[in-house]
Specification:
Order of helices and strands: HHHHHHHEEEHHEEHHHHEE
Distance between the termini: 86 Å
Helix content: 40-55%
Mean pLDDT: 83
Largest sheet: 3 strands, antiparallel
Radius of gyration: 27 Å
Shape: globular
Length: 319
């Protein structure tokens, strides 16, 4: 076997250094996982002492603390990446990579906004945040993409928004067409910016200060309560901002937008992930029944089945 050197803390440091060198957008998230969770449990262990049993004990501790399976898997993925880096290092810092068994996750959300829910939340939100909601609803952009949008990316003349490479989750550029409703909202937003905060580069800003909107969880929760989108038992909103993304995908499908175009707008690289967002609601199912009924009535007539006059149990159907 190759010799092993040092402790796991060194591998974690190497992993964070790699994230910084590569300019990963999730660097801060990775640092929080390392400093708040992984380092306290694994940091002082020698590399060769980490086994599948050690990892299983860590998982049990996380479960006892109430961490969700997806969160625990995120921790394990970071630790596994650190070990893989050590294994590929020159000279190697890891002789073997232990087995990492991830937990089963079945918590994929299927939330989306019906039109009346979108209108109710829009009315309940502060004026500063209504444009943010509108952009998410019509564009399907992720929240980070929306909040980081700058005026240099917006062309109000052609009605296009261009997301540059490096500003999206998959680091690929996208061009988003603006529907008339959204174009009107952005023009008004631009007028407010030009009148009061002409130096503000951000499309979405706090109107009172001209500073970039970075987070609005408190305002979102309060607005959801006022709009009736609140789970009182869990004390949580029933709608997430990411539900707007699912809604935009579903609306494009309903509107007959070609799938290739819809995927380019939403930024989905594979149809597998795209299909997860194209959610069918009960309203969709009822509408399909209505359409089928109308079609069959026109094609075959109203009386599709001639019902029996009476039913005699011993003789069956009798005309």
């Amino acid at each position: 076997l190759l010799p092993t050197r040092g402790r796991v803390g060194e591998l974690l440091d190497d992993m964070l250094r790699e994230q910084k060198i590569l300019g990963r957008k999730n660097l801060e998230g990775a640092r929080r996982v390392v400093e708040l969770h992984l380092r306290s449990y694994f940091g002082n262990l020698r590399v060769e002492r980490v086994t599948s049993d050690t990892i299983a004990e860590y998982v049990l501790q996380c479960q006892a603390r109430g961490l969700a399976p997806a969160t625990i898997n995120n921790h394990l993925a970071g630790l596994r990446h650190a070990f893989n880096l050590g294994y590929r290092a020159t000279p190697p810092k890891v002789a073997r990579v232990p087995y990492f068994r991830l937990l089963r996750v079945s918590n994929a959300r299927q939330g989306f906004f019906e039109p009346e829910e979108y209108r109710a939340l829009s009315q309940a939100l502060p004026d500063d945040l209504r444009p943010v909601l509108c952009f998410g609803y019509f564009s399907g952009c992720r929240k980070t993409e929306v909040l980081s949008l700058q005026w240099t990316q917006v062309d109000l003349e052609t009605g296009m928004v261009r997301l540059a490479a490096g500003t999206t989750k998959n680091d690929e550029p996208r061009t988003i067409p603006l529907v008339p409703q959204l174009l009107e909202v952005l023009r008004l937003q631009r007028e407010i910016r030009d009148r009061y905060w002409s130096g503000c580069p951000w499309v979405f800003f706090w109107h009172a200060s001209g500073s970039q909107i970075r987070s609005f969880r408190g305002s979102w929760d309060s607005a959801c309560q006022r709009a009736g989108l609140w789970d009182a038992a869990r004390k949580k909103p029933t709608k997430l901002f990411h539900d707007l993304r699912r809604t935009a995908v579903r609306n494009m499908e309903r509107a007959g937008v070609p799938r290739k175009v819809a995927m380019q707008v939403s930024g989905h690289k594979t149809e597998t992930i795209y299909h997860r967002y194209n959610i069918v609601s009960e309203a969709d199912l009822r509408d399909s029944a209505r359409r089928l009924g109308e079609y069959t009535r026109q094609a075959t007539g109203a009386a599709l089945v001639k019902l029996p006059v009476k039913l005699e149990p011993e003789k069956g159907l009798v005309q």
